[in-house]
Each structure stands twice: as C-alpha cells, then as structure tokens.
Structure prediction request, 381 residues.
Amino acid sequence: MRFEASEEQAQIRDMVRSLARKEFAPKAAQIDEEGRYPEENLKRLAELGLLGMLVPASHGGSETGTVAYAIALAEVAGGCASTAVGMAVTNMVGEGIHRFGSEEQRSRFLPALASGTVTGAFALTEPSAGSDAFGISTVALRDGDAYVLNGSKVFITNGSRAGVTIVMAVTEKEPKKRISAFLVLPGMPGFSVGKPEHKMGLKGSDTVSLSFGDCRVPKRNLLGAEGEGFPIAMTILDGGRIGIASQSVGIARAALDAATSYARERRQFGEPIASFQAIQGMLADSATELDAAELLALRAAYRKDAGAPFTREASVAKVFASEAAYRACHRSVQIFGGYGYIREYPVERHLRDIKVTSIYEGTSEIQRIIIARNLLGQGRR
Ligand code: CAA
Prediction:
C-alpha cells in the first residue's frame, strides 16, 4: 500500500494549488458577493485539461484518473468552491457519456466538454423527487424517431449554461416503471430554463430549474439502452460522490488554514490565542478529521480507478467528508469569534458553502442507507 501521490498526481496537485491560490482565491469573495458565475475560472480549468480528467485522450480528455481528479478538485475548492462544483459536474457528465454513450455521442460531446466549449449538467431531481430518485415523474414517450419529454427538474447545477444535460425521464410505467437517460441540448423546442435560485452558499454556481413541454429529443440522444437510466444515474452519482467528498475537504482545509493563521495573530489576555489549549484542540480536531476525510475520498477514487466496486466507499467518503468538513468550518468560525461572523474574513463563506455538501448528490441520510444496505447484504456489490 502506498500513501504518496505518483509523480504525475503530485505535479497536478502543485499546478492546481498554485492556480487556485493565486488566481481563484483572491476573487472568491467577490464572486460570492455578486453571485457571479466564475466563467474565467472554468476557462482556465479547461485550458489545463481539468474538465476532462475522466475522459480518454482519444476523445479530447486528459485521462488523469479519479485519484488525480479528487486531488485537483480539492485544491480548486480551497480557492473557489463555486468553481469546484462547476468543474465536478462537467467532469461527471463527460465520464457518464464516455461510459454509457455511443461512439457517435462520445465524438459529438466529449471533446467539447473537455475543452470547455460546452458545459455539462445532470438533471435527475424534481420538485417531488429528491432523495427518492426513482420517484421522478418526468415522462419521455416514443414518437417516431424521437422521444417527447414532459415534466420539470429542480436544483440543476450548470443548468442554464449547459451545452448538454443528461436528463432522466420515465419511458415505461407498466408493468414495471423504467427510467431512461437523454442528452438534451439548449434550443431543443419545448426545453426551457427557469430563474437562478438564491442560495445560502456556492453563490457563484449556476442552479436553476428546467422545464420540458412536449420537448422532442431525437432517438440518437438516448444515453445507453432504453430503460437503463436508473442504474446509469446511480453509477454516475457513485463517481460524483467522490468529487463532493473532495470538494468538502478542499473547502474545509481553506477554513482551517485561515483559522490557524488567525489564531497565531489574534492576541487576547496578552498572548496569541493559538497558545490556548481550547483553540489548539479545535485546530487539532479539524486537522485529524480532514486527514481521515481525504484518505477516505482517495480510497474510493483508488478503487474506482482499479475497477473495483466502490459504491460503499464513495458513500462512506461523502458522508464522513461532508460532515467532518462542516464541523471544521464551524470551528474555524468559532476561532475567529465575532470576526468570523462578518464578511471581512473568508470563514463565514466557507461555512455557507460547505452546508450543501451533505445535501447534494445524495444527502447524508441517503449515504447511510446505501452503506447500511451494503453491510446488510441488501445493496449492490
Ligand atoms: N450503481 C448501479 N446501479 C444501481 C446502484 C448503483 N450504485 N444503486 C442501485 N442501482 C440499481 C439497482 O441494482 C436496481 O436495479 P434493478 O431495478 O435492475 O434491480 C435499481 O437501481 C434500483 O435500486 P434500489 O432498489 O436500490 O433503488 P431505491 O429506489 O431503493 O433507491 C437510493 C436507492 C440509493 C435511495 C437512490 O434513490 C439514491 O441514490 N437517492 C439519492 C438521489 C441523489 O443522490 N440525488 C442527487 C441529485 S444530483 C445532484 O445533486 C447533482 C448536482 O447538481 C450537484
């Protein structure tokens, strides 16, 4: 067992760390304040091959693998969490098309996603179907050489900018409900995008609802076989959850770094607050939990790269990392005291940004169900 990054992974980490610290972090507060999509950051990621990390070079990707991707995503998240979620979803969509798409779909979409010409989105959640993903009601009925989609989706990251959105819809209700996956493009008649959501955090990320009113999607845009959409969505989410675990680690490490520096500088009772054991205990707890979170994310990534089952490991990583990261961000605000509660310092943003990591791509409660089913021999394995 090796605990070091390979030479290539270390190079990627150093390159992305420098980019995130020098270019992304200085603008992150302003992006948050203005709720502005960090277009220029995504462009930089595309230039460096960081939007197609899970796509083969033959389709324009950098095929660095999931371990390198997890490392890079954590670094990006430390600089700008909104940029990280945009990066995560585009990589996830590219990988989904690579894994389940036809050769024609791969050639049509993967080079564009990897080069940043096109952004990806993943549309599963609906107003009445969040955790119960199988409960979706958007329908897709076959009509000649097309499917006609009717329904709506909510909370779709990258939704208003995506050049390609993977949309899940019900293609059969009886005798057994079956879901299929479609590649929906902007401009398809009947496809419309709602207003941006006003969120607690990740204010620079694009989160919208989508509507389908008799939206005709050509049959050639069916992703995978008809009726196979649910396992496709679950497989894509397994990989996505490694990304969210990494994003969590990156955000919380930035909060811990800020709190550590502040504790050295801030003086009370005649000495730096870093000399008080209460503060040291908080810093040590955060450092310990974030090390564990990072290792869990890397373990899941390693198993995925090795072709081993990783559903359980991805859920373990996500639930632990998102919750540990929340605790670390909370402690960082506590260390800053009153200054942690105002916008002058970054930790209040980190606390707002981290909250959603235990909600999106499957809540902590859903991750625990997946882990328990696996333990009880009821899950997939
Ligand atoms: N990989 C492949 N297939 C899987 C799978 C996996 N990890 N998990 C389940 N499946 C398959 C099963 O084998 C089963 O197949 P058959 O019908 O052929 O037997 C089928 O899917 C149904 O499985 P379950 O019986 O386990 O399904 P369920 O209804 O009990 O739901 C669940 C399981 C884990 C709770 C699932 O609904 C779930 O993950 N919910 C959370 C949804 C979620 O994560 N949403 C996030 C939205 S996307 C987002 O947030 C992105 C963003 O914008 C940032």
Remarks:
- The longest strand covers residues 146-157.
- The chain is about 50% helix and 15% strand.
- Residues 89, 122, 124-125, 131-134, 156-157, 230-231, 234-235, 237-238, 311, 360-362, 366, 369-370, 380 surround acetoacetyl-coenzyme A (CB under 6 Å).
